[in-house]
Design goal:
- There is one protein chain.
- By secondary structure, the chain is of the alpha+beta class.
- It has 4 domains: 7-63, OB fold (Dihydrolipoamide Acetyltransferase, E2P), CATH 2.40.50; 74-135, Beta Barrel (OB fold (Dihydrolipoamide Acetyltransferase, E2P)); 149-205, OB fold (Dihydrolipoamide Acetyltransferase, E2P) (Beta Barrel); 210-276, Arc Repressor Mutant, subunit A, CATH 1.10.10.10.
- It has 4 helices and 18 strands.
- The protein has helices at 25-28, 210-227, 240-247, 251-263, and strands at residues 7-16, 19-23, 30-34, 47-54, 60-63, 74-82, 86-90, 97-100, 113-120, 127-130, 149-157, 161-166, 170-175, 188-196, 202-205, 231-232, 267-270, 273-276.
- A 5-stranded antiparallel beta sheet has the order 3-2-1-4-5, with no helix packed on it. Strands 8-7-6-9-10 form a 5-stranded antiparallel beta sheet, with no helix packed on it. A 5-stranded mixed barrel has the order 11-12-13-15-14.
- α2 (210-227) crosses α4 (251-263).
- The radius of gyration is 25 Å and the shape is elongated.
Length: 278
């Protein structure tokens, strides 16, 4: 089934001077892939991955360029220009992505970036975006367990921490006391489930849970020592900020990993730091 605003794998059925025609099925018929987007060596019968959108004349057209977001995605995009109808976002295609004024929380400014949701407008069936992110988040019960790794898109700073869009679907919260690095709107990184509350709200962490995190970091620390003459000046008494600046983990995780390596008799602990055993 052909999906507007998504990457589709379609078959080449016809070659013309100005491009290729792809099989869009009974509903859409043949879909043009303009010559400038045709990969070298492509021939009739080949299958090709293309993104489908509407051109300036509202005709369905294909491109081998991949946008920064597809229909159903949340993304952090920059405003390319503004007119009397709304804002237009740079999303990696020749035709910019439209955000009508009704879908803006505040009037968007050229050059600024915003978290938006890409969707098909119910009335016009055109691809557009909305900065009113909340209405596109799922209200279903999240299916996660404590410690699960998820994709997190940092959305908005609050008094408690940062609102996060989880796996392109759910809303979550990363509390300030869980932060060991600076975060900014638009950052996308792996996060971990701390808990899913009874009301479906998700609390997040930046690091794996407990012993899992320590075990994973033990290997990282061991490799770091091997690559740095077998030593590090960091130890149990080092400030948490210095530990995070070097390793990107909390002091608690660092100390557990040090204890694990010490119990395995792989390191020595001194006032000068940590060193590998001979």
């Amino acid at each position: 089934m052909v999906e507007l605003g998504r990457v589709n794998r379609l078959t080449v059925v016809k070659q013309v001077d100005f491009g290729l025609y792809l099989d869009g099925g009974e509903v859409h018929g043949n879909i043009l892939l303009p010559a400038r987007y045709v990969p070298d060596g492509t021939k009739i019968g080949d299958e090709i991955d293309v993104f489908l959108y509407l051109d300036q004349e509202e005709r369905l057209v294909a491109t081998t360029e991949h946008p920064l977001a597809q229909v159903g995605d949340f993304a952090w995009l920059e405003v390319a220009w503004v007119n009397n109808f709304g804002a237009f976002l740079n999303w990696g295609l020749m035709k910019d992505l439209f955000v009508p004024f009704r879908e803006q929380k505040m009037k968007m400014q050229k050059g600024n970036r915003y978290i938006v949701h890409v969707h098909l407008d119910e009335e016009s069936h055109r691809i557009m975006a909305s900065a009113k992110v909340e209405k596109f988040l799922s209200h279903e019960m999240p299916p996660y367990q404590v410690g699960d790794a998820v994709d997190g898109l940092v959305w908005q700073k609050t008094d408690l921490g940062f609102k996060v869009i989880v796996d392109n679907r759910f809303g979550g919260l990363l509390y300030d006391h869980q932060l060991f690095r600076q975060l900014h709107t638009g950052d996308r990184l792996t996060m971990y489930i701390q808990q899913v509350r009874e009301d479906g709200k998700i609390d997040l962490m930046l690091q794996p849970v407990g012993q899992q995190a320590a075990r994973e970091f033990s290997d990282v620390l061991l490799e770091h020592l091997r690559n740095n003459a077998g030593r590090t000046v960091l130890g149990d008494k080092s400030p948490a900020e210095e530990i995070y600046a070097v390793f990107g983990v909390s002091k608690k995780v660092f100390k557990k990993a040090v204890g694990d390596l010490y119990k395995r008799r792989l390191i020595q602990i001194t006032d000068e730091g940590i060193s590998l055993n001979d």
